[in-house]
Specification:
By secondary structure, the chain is α/β, with parallel strands linked by helices. It has one domain: Rossmann fold, CATH 3.40.50. Helix content is 39%, strand content 23%. An 11-stranded mixed beta sheet has the order 1-9-8-7-10-11-6-5-2-3-4, with helices on both faces.
């Protein structure tokens, strides 16, 4: 289905409550294998806002080509670069961690031990990966295996995020995704997109031989319902002064989010985390594989969710 923007919303404020969230991260971890992509991930992590008393961990799992001693030297250089960049933040503690074992399992274990809020790693190359992530993809294993949010870094981080785009489906996880974005970009206009996916309804109408008017009525009803739901979803944040631009799109979620990011020139796409361990073709993984900018998959440990 051809992707197009349905409407640009100018939504009046409602009053279901207010959002008073913290700014910046308090527990951040960078997973590195000392490759160029990992260096970009470290550079991006050092540009993220950190809260008072934050911890910044640089983790390497396994050994480098130079063996254990080589891995220790590389890790020390990476940690030294982080300490130099954060020298004006004496309240931030920088940790180094060298572990052995499977990469995905070890990163997940350290993230749980330290209560990490965000894991930063090098992402897939959007320019050459216009397809689903491969079965052996490190990014895919991380996203599937971690219970915490993951930021996959693609281009060189020349500046802080200026054009974030958050995809929401009105779930609790998408609300957490928006709140995490507001912590990372507290003074930036945040674009929020909801995708109206009518493919299932259209298939049902075609199976019943419905006339063309039925398709138009169904799409209009879905759009009106989505517009009202998006208004309710964003109202608490707007009432606290957050700058949000609401948008609706139609079509398959992954393609629609990628198209919206391309049109806006987004430098960060934030998507709600979904359990994809048994799903072969997740729209979240398609965004990860094909995005030309950084992708943040927001996920929180279900054991601590109320």
């Amino acid at each position: 289905m051809r992707q197009h923007e349905l409407t640009r919303l100018d939504i009046p404020l409602l009053s279901p409550g207010t959002y008073r969230g913290p700014r910046g991260l308090t527990r951040l971890m960078v997973a590195t294998d000392f490759s160029l992509r990992s260096e970009l991930a470290l550079a991006r992590a050092l540009r993220l806002p950190l809260g008072v008393g934050a911890t910044f961990t640089v983790l390497h799992v396994g050994a480098s080509p130079g063996g254990v001693m080589g891995a220790e030297r590389c890790l020390r250089r990476a940690v030294g670069a982080a300490c130099r960049r954060l020298r004006h933040r004496p309240d931030v503690t920088v940790h180094e961690s060298l572990r052995r074992g499977g990469v995905g399992e070890t990163v997940a274990e350290v993230a749980r031990e330290q209560g990490v809020e965000l894991v930063v790693l090098g992402g897939a190359s959007g320019a050459s990966a216009r397809r689903a992530l491969g079965e052996g993809s490190r990014v895919r294993r991380m996203v599937r295996g971690l219970d915490t949010s993951v930021l996959a870094v693609v281009p060189h981080p020349s500046r802080t995020y200026a054009k974030p785009l958050v995809a929401v489906d009105f779930s609790r996880e998408s609300r957490r995704a928006l709140e995490l974005t507001l912590r990372l970009c507290p003074l930036t206009l945040v674009e929020v997109v909801h995708v109206v996916d009518t493919r299932e309804e259209e298939a049902g109408l075609r199976a019943r031989g419905a006339p063309p008017e039925a398709f138009l009525v169904m799409r209009r009803e879905r759009e009106d319902a989505a517009r009202a739901a998006l208004a309710r979803f964003l109202a608490p944040y707007r009432e606290t002064g957050c700058e949000l631009e609401a948008r609706l799109r139609e079509g398959e979620p992954g393609e629609a989010v990628l198209a919206q990011a391309l049109e806006l020139g987004s430098d960060l796409v934030v998507v709600p985390g979904e359990r994809v361990s048994t799903v072969e073709d997740s729209w979240v993984e398609r965004v990860l594989a094909c995005s030309a900018c950084d992708v943040l998959v927001s996920r929180h440990d279900t054991r601590v969710m109320s």
